[in-house]
Amino acid sequence: MTPAATHGARIVEALRAAKIDLVATLPDAWLGPAISAIEAAPDMTLMRVTREDEAVAICAGAWLGGRRGAVLAQNAGLLLSTNVLAAYALHHQIPILLLIAQRGRHDDDQYYQSYKGQVTVPVVEAIGLPYRIIEDPADIGAIAQVWMQAYLARRPGVVLLSRRALVGTAP
Rounded CA gap, 82 and 139, in Å? Predict the structure, then answer.
């Protein structure tokens, strides 16, 4: 198993530990191994969406229907979804786990991603969401802790995942 596939499997195990069985996602190069692992898991429902705010709405609806959901996207999608996060999840106190590829940092070799790396954490802090940054693949299990924090606070929780945590390589 490649390092990226191993990291994807760890994400599935962390989701299982949090009893999350629905993941809404959009494709991203860094998220491919996690998406593949979730898709291969028979106890998980993977929903592909066209916009990240749709993923947030699907997870909010899942919560209202008795399920736990997670959004798997890159930080551009988190930034796009701030209105929906405030309208649905914060206003109605719906816990949603947001697993976010933290693009635009020192480990990203695409210059057009850089602004995202600069504004993601300040935006997450400004809208008052609890978050954790995971740099090391060994810490992926902390995803379940972030879910518990979100669940107890009745608000979305954010996990910002580095390139190394998702695919195990640097540029």
Answer: 26
Which residues touch 3 (CB under 8 Å, ≥6 apart)? 137, 167, 168, 169
* Ordered alpha helix ranges (H), 18-140: 32-40, 52-64, 75-80, 82-84, 114-126
Question: What tens digit of pLDDT does each residue of 34-51 get?
Answer: 999 999 999 999 999 999
Judged by phi (left if over 0) then psi (alpha if -120 to 50, else beta), residue 66 lies in: left
Would you state the pLDDT for residue 100?
A: 96
From CA 129, how far away is CA 86, in angstroms rounded? 10
Tens of pLDDT, residue by residue over 68-95, are 999 999 999 999 999 998 887 778 999 9
Is residue 38 within 8 Å of 15, Cβ to Cβ? yes
Cβ 23 vs Cβ 72: under 8 Å: yes
Tokens of 98: 């947001």
Number of H helices, E strands in the chain: 8, 6
